[in-house]
Amino acid sequence: MVKETGEKINILIQNSIALQRAVTVLAVNLDKFSKEIGKLLEFLGDSAKSFEAEEKVRGSAAGAAASSDMVKKLDMLIDQNKTVAKGLVLLENYLKEKIESGRTEIKF
After folding, report:
1. Considering Cα of 3, then 20, then 95, then 26, what sign does the dihedral take?
2. What distance in Å separates the CA atoms of residue 42 and residue 88, rounded to the nearest whole number?
3. Residue 30, Cα to own-chain centre: how many angstroms?
4. Taking the domains of the chain in order of start, what are their residue ranges?
5. What's the pTM value of the predicted model, to 2 decimals?
6. What are phi and psi of 60, to 5 degrees?
7. Dihedral through CA 19, CA 22, CA 27, CA 28, nearest 10?
8. pLDDT tens-digit profile of 88-105?
9. Would you state the pLDDT for residue 65?
10. Alpha-carbon gap, residue 108 to 100, rounded angstroms
């Protein structure tokens, strides 16, 4: 009986350690993903500004209207990506807190 209990405790400890490792890897990957999303947002913002500047130089009324719509859509996309990035950062912080507190049970 004692041997079985000891084996069960060892298995639980091993599972807990494996879970903590997996959560740590997830947190690191979320951090990398968040940084990449930030780079993408910066790129899209720069592209939108560049696109708008080129259309202003061309002076075409139709082109300006089309570029204005494109810029609006890109701005909406940037805002959506910012929201996703914020959510990922919050999830990362939540996971880090769980790891630091020593809890292995994670509930969403």
Report:
1. negative
2. 17
3. 5
4. 2-101
5. 0.47
6. -75, 130
7. 150
8. 888 888 888 887 777 655
9. 65
10. 17
At which residue do the structure tokens 């209207």 appear?
A: 65
Written as one letter, the residue type at 4 is: E
Do 92 and 31 contact (CB within 8 A), yes or no? yes
Give the pLDDT mean for 48-75.
73
The most distant pair of C-alpha atoms in the chain lies apart, rounded to whole Å, by 85
Which backbone phi and psi does 24 adopt, to 5 degrees?
Answer: -65, -45
What is the full DSSP assignment across 22-76? HHHHHHHHHHHHHHHHHHHHHHHHHHHHHHHHHHHHHT-HHHHHHHHHHHHHHHH
Check residue 107 and report its DSSP letter: -
Q: Scanning the structure block, which residue is given the tokens 């009324």? A: 61
Please, are residues 88 and 33 in contact by the beta-carbon 8 Å criterion? yes
